[in-house]
Amino acid sequence: MVRVAGLSAQGEQRRLALRAGAAGLTAWACPAWVQASQIEEPLSDSVRQALRAAVEFAGPPEPEFVSPEARIAYLRWLGELSPRLQRRKPQLQDRIEFLQTVWYESRRAGLEESLVLGVIQVESAFRKFAISPVGARGYMQIMPFWARLIGDGDPAKLFHLQTNIRFGCVILRHYLDMEGGDLFLALGRYNGSRGRATYPNAVFAAQRQWRLA
């Protein structure tokens, strides 16, 4: 039987579920292919510093627009996607804050907003406090080792909206650069299932739901 930090795999899953329950968090059931997650790999000092700089907190995600047309495009995007998200986030203010953060962090990392929403849908089903059986956290299911590698070492902060989405976008951008722009392989690496089609295909299918009509 596989052991993780002195516990059996089943014991580790029970421990995480109990911790989540005690903290009022959501330990959620997910398919086996989602239970995989980012794999800790050696990072060069230059890459680690670049990633660390990319995730450093820089204030609230306030959109800035280079032109009136850009502002109109953003408002159209917000107006169209907010109703689509209503079932998952009934409160208008929560939806606006969430979408604004996704828009800001996606643009900051050079990713499509629909792609990031697709990843969130597949990874956590839009659950802010989701914890997977392998310990990944939050909307974009960030593994705690990332807090140690490129953050301040506090994995609890991975449940913060902007922190979680920023980490997720920065990590996905990192994997995309590693894979020479190949999104299929980058998504597989994000999920810890590089080369297998199930996870990337699920994200691509979810992404289509979040594109503008």
Describe the main β-sheet briefly: 2 strands, antiparallel
The tally of structural domains comes to: 1
Number of distinct helices: 10
Q: Distance N terminus to C terminus?
A: 49 Å
CATH architecture classification name: Orthogonal Bundle
Strand content range: under 5%
Q: Using only CA atoms, what is the Rg? A: 17 Å
Number of strands: 4
The CATH topology: Lysozyme
Mean pLDDT: 85
What is the molecular shape?
Answer: globular
Q: What sequence of helices (H) and strands (E) makes up the elements?
A: EEHEHHHHHEHHHH
Q: What would CATH call the class?
A: Mainly Alpha
Q: What is the helix content? A: 55-70%
Q: pLDDT below 50 for ≥5 consecutive residues: which ranges?
A: 1-25
* Global structural class: mainly alpha
Record the strand order, biggest sheet. Answer: 1-2
